[in-house]
Specification:
The chain has 100 residues and is mostly helical. The chain contains four helices and three strands; from the N terminus they run αβααββα. The N terminus is likely disordered.
């Protein structure tokens, strides 16, 4: 009786958030992602560098990149993994990634 609403959710564990999660970083990521064109790939590394330089935070760049990827995935935005020193761009479309 009424227990069917949560069916399928019982086995899923919540993702562990960083201990020092920074609301200002999440807000800035959200603002930057919402201001982008939906078809333009999100430059993950470049965006993380911009945020770490503009927002005072103790989060390492890798944690900021992880948040950007998760938030871009939620919005189903294509992402560009623009690693420093890489010769080629690594653009991944969410639809393409799910198909493989």
């Amino acid at each position: 009786m009424g227990g069917g609403k949560n069916r399928g959710r019982e086995g899923k564990a919540m993702r562990e958030l960083p201990k020092s999660i920074d609301a200002d970083v999440v807000i800035e990521i959200s603002r930057l992602l919402d201001d982008r064109a939906k078809s333009a790939p999100v430059p993950v590394h470049k965006l993380a560098s911009m945020i770490s330089n503009s927002v005072e935070t103790d989060l390492p760049t890798a944690s900021i990149e992880e948040l950007i990827v998760e938030m871009a995935m939620t919005r189903q935005l294509p992402m560009l993994f623009d690693l420093p020193g890489a010769d080629t761009d690594n653009v991944i479309s969410i639809a393409l990634a799910r198909a493989t």
